[in-house]
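>> Question from a student workshop board

For tomorrow's exercise we were told to take the sequence and the ligand below, predict the bound structure, and bring the output to class. My setup keeps failing. Could a helper post the expected result so I can at least see what it should look like? The ligand is nickel (II) ion.
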Amino acid sequence: MAIRKIITPPNPLLKKPSLLVEEVDGRIRALVNDMFETMYDAPGIGLAAVQVGEPLSVIVMDTAKEDEEPRPRALINPRIVWAAEEEREYEEGCLSVPDIYDKVVRPARVKVRYLDLDGQPREEEFADMDATCVQHEIDHTKGILFIDYLGRLKRERYLKKVIKKAKQAQEA
Ligand code: NI
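>> Workshop helper replied:
Here is what the output should look like for this input. Compare the format with yours to find the bug.
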C-alpha cells in the first residue's frame, strides 16, 4: 500500500469524467487500498480515484466518527439511480480543493448502483452524511467539484488564490 499524492487545481484531470472500470481485478483492488490509505492519512471521509491521478470510476468513503468503528466502503462504477426530493445542506470541503468550505444543498437520500470489490453488482440507499459524501464523490467521477455549485465569483476568486499559491510553492 502507498499514500498517493492528491491533485489540486489547476490540474485538468479534476475536470475530466473518469472511465468506467471494465474488470474489478487486482490492479483495481490495489488502487482501492492506496485510496483508503491516502484518505485516512489526509484525513478525509471520501476520495475518488481521479484525486490521486487515476481517472477511473472508483470511490472510497468512511463517514464513521472518531469514536465509532471504521466503516470503509469502496464503490466501483457508482451511479445514482434515484434521489429523494427532500434536501440536505452541509458545509462541504474536499481534499482536492484545500482551504475552502461552503454550504452545498443535495438530495438527502439517494440510491446508488455500483460494483463491489468482487465485481458483484449492488444497489444501496445512502442517507444523511453518507448521501452527501457519496454524491460528492460520484461528482468527482464526472469531473464536478463542489465549488462548481457555488457562485461564479466566489469560485473564480478561490481558484485564482489557489493557483497563485501553487505557483509560489513551485517557485520557492
Ligand atoms: Ni472531493
